[in-house]
Amino acid sequence: MLDKENTASEVWADTAYRSAKNEEMLAKRGFVSRLHRKKPKGRPLPERIRIANARKSKVRSAVEHVFAHQGLMGLIIRRIGLARARVKIGLANLAYNMRRFVWLQGRSAPG
Fold first, then answer.
1. Which of 8, 62, 4, 57 is nearest to 28 (CA)?
2. CA Rg, the chain, in Å?
3. How many CA atoms within 13 Å lie on the side-chain side of 86?
4. What is the pLDDT of residues 53-66, one digit of tens each?
């Protein structure tokens, strides 16, 4: 999943992926960790960490929304060949973008 050929150097994930071992591995490979921080046991989450986690959630939710929508569309890749799988994913993304555009247009329409 972590590919240096990808132009992004940040890794976004929830608390399940945060560990000293993972943080060290990300640093060694030159990635910037944007993993959520865990709540300390028996204590409230410090305010600065809560705010940082909320900012990270805002970015992650925009990406995860697309994958959730693909699941609702029943997107299951059972094709022979990478080209066919890419076409199916591309068409699903096109359908998502069209629905999202219509939804956004409806929100900005004058009342």
1. 4
2. 18
3. 3
4. 999 998 888 888 87
pLDDT at 78 over 80: no
Burial class (CB in 10 A: 0-12, 13-18, 19+), 26: buried
Q: What is the pLDDT of residue 111?
A: 59
pLDDT of residue 53: 92
Residue 62: Cβ-neighbour burial (10 angstroms; 0-12, 13-18, 19+): exposed
As given in the structure block, the two tokens for residue 86 are 């890419």
Distance CA 90, CA 78 (A): 14
d(CA 25, CA 64): 24
Helix (H) or strand (E) holding 66: helix 47-72
- For residue range 7-25, list pLDDT tens digits in order: 778 888 888 889 999 999 9
